[in-house]
Design goal:
single chain; Hypothetical Protein, Haloacid Dehalogenase-like Hydrolase, Chain: A, domain 2; 275 residues; 31% helix; 2 domains; 23% strand; Rossmann fold; eight-stranded mixed sheet
Length: 275
Amino acid sequence: MFQEEFLMDVQIIALDIDGTLTDDRKNISNLTLEALIEAEKKGIRLVLASARPASGLFSIRDQLKMEQFGGILMSYNGGRITDCAGNTFYEISMGLTMTRRILRFLEELPVTVIVDDGKMFYVTDKNGYKVEYECRNNQMQCTEVGNLADWLTFSPIKILLAVNPMKIYEVQEQIRNFLPEDLTVVRTAAFYLEIFPRRINKGQGLCDICRILKIDVRNSIAFGDSENDIPMLKAAGIGIAMKNAEIDVKKASDMSTLSNNEDGIPYALRALNVI
């Protein structure tokens, strides 16, 4: 699983959150927490790389003491990159006209649509599939509106869709056939699809962070488990898939580690002599 001798000068560890950094109960184990803080004390910067809005990263940022050690927050799959104090390096959003067109198309599909402005979620039904879960997971409130396409006045970074897992591949294909070339739709969980500009992905985000920090991307390690993690795993010097990762994610990675419920991150970091 891991090579015996590892000589890479690791300067960045990029971490997907759900299914990777956190266990199935959405907690970070003490062993994983201690290992990552040990890495920070050695001068390695942490990057939280998630599809979540930035506010959904704050609790984990604080647990990992990332502000103290110069950590970076990559939210919206790389659509927004900030430091831990909230200073924005860059942000890429969807156009308002196209967003409204997509929202009208989605009205005919079996999906719960969720959009946000970084501070609030907006939905047509607060009781919709996964709405309460998403609010709780990101520590954000939710506002109910009559019709999203008519109501929307800002350009979101992404459109989040909660979908029955039994229908998600079929729905993803329908959306993919509708979208223009500059937009894409990606599975970010068994029950989530996300629509965002094609130029947004975690791999590009990691490369941009390395450029900003003047670090060679080859001196980075990335951990992930889902389809949206693949570009990041490919971009990193070493891409590591969790045992619980999707098959395509494992194929795209350089190696695999234990699952998110088995402290796969510290296991890999110790096996590679990073900590």
